[in-house]
Amino acid sequence: MKLYSAYMAPSPRRSRMALAEKGITGVEVINIDLAGGENLKPEFRERNRMAKVPVLELDDGTCISEGSAIYRYLEEIQPEPNLLGRTAVEKAIIEMWDRRLENALFMPIGQCFQHTSGFFKDRMTPIAEWGQEAGKLAGKFLPVLEQQLEKHEYVAGDRFSVADITALCSLEFGKVIQLRITDEFPAIQRWHAHMKARPSYTA
Known about the structure:
Layout: E1 2-5, H1 10-22, E2 28-31, H2 42-45, E3 55-57, E4 63-65, H3 67-77, H4 88-117, H5 128-151, H6 162-173, H7 186-196
Parallel strand pairs: 1-2
Antiparallel strand pairs: 1-3, 3-4
């Protein structure tokens, strides 16, 4: 298998962490130059028409993009250690939190970065006002996450799941928009320290 990635980007980091947590080795990681527009070239678009990373290319040439789809594929080929839940309730809770994190934290941070940094101004029309509003929306989710982590060791309950991966990659990417885990969020700080101790943190 090959994973088309980009070292500093949060989306492919989610896939690299999932691979590490699963203990799946032998995957060739190919870093794409996003700033240089390598993802926009025809040869990459053949793998993903959306021109986004990550893309997991299987040995038969099948290409899977989108973080949640890659999570699902990895879980199917290697069920343990389990990251998506075992029971119907656990699966639903994990997916609920993963979607909440994507919609209320991950995507707003990305929108804020894209629309206020000018990083992709050669391929989009930044709207600074929307970027600023998206950053505020991301910040509003932190109290929600804090309340959840006050009650549970991990984001979706009492064991590690893909929701923790999404939360970690979101919050660490949040540094680019000055979104910080301040002392007003001690439960998130505790959880974050725990996440940094996992081997997959450096994936």
